[in-house]
Amino acid sequence: MPLFEQVLKNNPEKVKLVFKNFPLRNHQYAAKAAMGALAADVQGKFWEFHDRLFADFNHINDQKIKDIARELGYKTAEFEKQMADPGILSRIRQDVQDGTAAGVRGTPTVFINGKQLRSRTLKGFQDLIDKELEKIEKTPN
Fold it and tell me: Where in the chain are the domains?
């Protein structure tokens, strides 16, 4: 997340970060990880959960998801109940539909103002942000 944080810091009040879930079908625990992150979001701990998950993303499994929830102060039964909320599954399905419609094929995929970012470097981010901001500034109100 440090790159995103830098982009936001460099562009205060100009850039908004929107996260969409796109659990890959070939990853056995991707959907559960997304459900866990959205359950954590109920308590305002989405990014904490997300960052812990992806700190060791090659080893995500049911136990790791439960362990992260406990580390963040959840009781297992409460967390599992939140993960099972139909609204969470609905949100993930909508995110996947949106991503598919936008041409997402893998993760992470980044868009800036609807344009897919090809260069995921700080300079790549800033170049596309500047280009999009310039277009907006030239557009008459």
Answer: 2-107, 110-141
Rounded CA-CA distance 10/82 in Å is 35
Cβ neighbourhood burial of 34 (10 Å; 0-12, 13-18, 19+): buried
Instruction: Give the three-class secondary structure for 111.
Output: strand
Has residue 112 got a pLDDT over 80? yes
CA distance 14 to 29: 35
Strands (DSSP E) contained in 1-141 are 111-112, 115-116
Indicate whether 71 pLDDT > 60.
Answer: yes
Binned at pLDDT 50, 70 and 90, residue 54 comes out as confident
Q: Hey, what CATH topology would domain 2-107 get?
A: Glutaredoxin (3.40.30)
Task: Decide: helix, strand or coil at residue 73.
Answer: coil
